[in-house]
Automatic annotation (TrEMBL):
All residue ranges annotated as the Pyridoxine 5'-phosphate oxidase dimerisation C-terminal domain in the record: 171-212
Taxonomic lineage of the native organism: Bacteria, Pseudomonadati, Pseudomonadota, Gammaproteobacteria, Alteromonadales
Catalytic activity: pyridoxine 5'-phosphate + O2 = pyridoxal 5'-phosphate + H2O2; pyridoxamine 5'-phosphate + O2 + H2O = pyridoxal 5'-phosphate + H2O2 + NH4(+)
Species in which this protein is naturally found: Salinimonas sediminis
Protein name, UniProt field: Pyridoxine/pyridoxamine 5'-phosphate oxidase
Xref: InterPro entries: Pyridox_Oxase, Pyridox_Oxase_CS, Pyridox_Oxase_N, Pyridoxamine_oxidase_dimer_C, Split_barrel_FMN-bd
Cofactor notes: Binds 1 FMN per subunit.
Length: 212
């Protein structure tokens, strides 16, 4: 079968005005809870899209680590491509691809770095091997082989076997404060339900239905 002929019906549900909430994070949290309860793989995985100085966008998958009315939080190496791009251009887009539930959520917002206190609190909540991995990997930098990475990790593991690691100064989190959030629910015959929330200058949210 040609990929152009691959298609299926989306019939798992609908999204109506009556299901919307005053604040989009409330609806997002509900959908996230439902994705977790459904047991879909990596429900907190999201695409982060940033743009470099030439206007070239790039995307990668990261894990959502916190969400609240202020926005969405993730952590990364501050020397990574995404961190460098967000430092020079904080405009960012997030995407949650909950395809197993015929849903997706698209977010546009502005990224800002978390405080040292917030970074430390999360860093020390991670398993020690994850802490070591943050030190071993200079994310996005070239490396000659995987074996070299494994060697660096093993050396750090031995060095800090009985010691507490410090919080790396090259590692931290970002808060993405949204100004637009779209909820998409697949519909039969490609008549999908799409609702877009937009935040005005006074911080108030409004909604509109979009054509599929």
């Amino acid at each position: 079968m040609a990929i152009s002929d691959m298609r299926r019906q989306y019939a798992m549900g609908t999204l109506e005005e009556a299901s919307l909430t005053a604040h989009p994070i409330t609806l997002f949290s509900r959908w996230l809870d439902e994705a977790i309860a459904a047991g879909i793989p990596d429900p907190t995985a999201m695409t982060v899209a940033s743009v470099d100085a030439t206007g070239q966008p790039s995307q990668r998958i990261v894990l959502l680590k916190d969400v609240g009315e202020q926005g969405f939080v993730f952590y990364t190496n501050l020397g990574s491509r995404k961190a460098r791009e967000l430092s020079s251009n904080p405009k960012v887009s997030l995407h949650f691809p909950w395809f197993f539930m015929e849903r997706q959520v698209r977010i546009c917002g502005t990224a800002s770095k978390l405080s040292l206190k917030q970074n430390a609190e999360y860093f020390f909540s991670r398993p020690k091997d994850s802490q070591l991995a943050a030190f071993a990997s200079r994310q996005s930098q070239p490396i000659s082989s995987r074996q070299l990475l494994l060697t660096q990790f093993a050396q750090l593991k031995q060095k800090f076997a009985d010691r507490t690691l410090p919080v790396p100064d090259f590692w931290g989190g970002f808060l993405v404060a949204p100004h637009q959030i779209e909820f998409w629910q697949g519909g039969e015959d490609r008549l999908h339900d799409r609702f877009e929330y937009n935040k005005d200058a006074q911080g108030n949210w409004s909604t509109q239905r979009l054509m599929p």
